[in-house]
Amino acid sequence: MKQFRWLTGIFYAILILYSIVTFLPFAWALSASFKPLNEIVTGGMNFIPHNFTLDNYRNIFLATPLFGRWFFNSVFVAVCVTLLNLLFNSMAGYALARIQFLGNQLIFGLILAVLMIPGQVTLLPTYLVLKSLGWLNTYQGLIVPNVANATFIFMMRQFFISFPKELEEAAALDGLSRWEMFLQIVLPLAKPALAAQAIFIFMGAWNNFLMPLMILSDPEMFTLPLGLNTFKGQFISYWNYIMAASMVFTLPALAIYAFFNRYFISGVTFTGSKS
């Protein structure tokens, strides 16, 4: 018993050390967002600013006219991608788990095959398709290619396989159609899985840099990751503005996680409970 206590203590000590090491860069970035540029490049790793200033935050909103537009673009794209994924991934996962149709297993096999393909491989074909449709530098070019995700279709299928059939049978006896059953019975009870999915999808869309970099050239259409990159020049990088903008950049992601946190653990656990 004492041996297990020692192992538990060592385990917690490792986790605490890892947490500190992980948190330190974020703490320095937060501190640097309140420093002038000269203190950042010459002041070392001090966590308490010697010359505390709010000018960095003031300048990114007032002196950078497109920052508000970049923020709106990121919010709009991330919210649209998240909502559409929640709907389409859930519909696809439910169909694969509950509806027996010709090609069900074949489609599921293709979805598993898609999981093995790195996203970078599809960037060039996606660009060519969007170019042929005239969707470069457009919101639909950022949103439509990301409205469904094979990983979360698989996750929702696993959830619906574990979903009690008795509830659907009772709803069918009450005269509900398959669509009404899905919207009124299944989706409201799938909140844990939807919450876990929403966090991952929003974070992926919010942090996406490569896809916007490939299809956007108009600065007014930039998302925040691309906008942050404009603060880096050939001869000088405005790290004070980058740090301040990065702190603003993290706020929506933190808000999403805080809102869905109570569903997050149960959703991740439950969706993988049965194959």
If you had to describe this structure to a student in words, what would you say it looks like?
- With 275 residues, the protein is an all-alpha fold.
- The protein has 2 domains: 63 residues, no CATH class; 207 residues, MetI-like (MetI-like fold, Orthogonal Bundle).
- It contains 14 helices and no strands.
- The C terminus is likely disordered.
List the main descriptive attributes of the protein structure presented here:
275 residues, mainly alpha, MetI-like fold, 2 domains, 14 helices, 0% strand, globular
CATH architecture of the largest domain: Orthogonal Bundle
Main sheet characteristics = none
Main CATH class of the largest domain = Mainly Alpha
Instruction: Compute the CA-based radius of gyration.
Output: 23 Å
For this structure, the CATH topology of the largest domain is: MetI-like fold
Gross morphology is globular
Beta strands, count: 0
Number of helices: 14
Strand content: under 5%
Order of helices and strands: HHHHHHHHHHHHHH
> Low-confidence parts, pLDDT < 50 over ≥5 residues?
268-275
In terms of structural class, how would the helical and strand content be classed?
mainly alpha
CATH superfamily of the largest domain: MetI-like
Number of separate domains: 2
**Overall average residue pLDDT:** 86
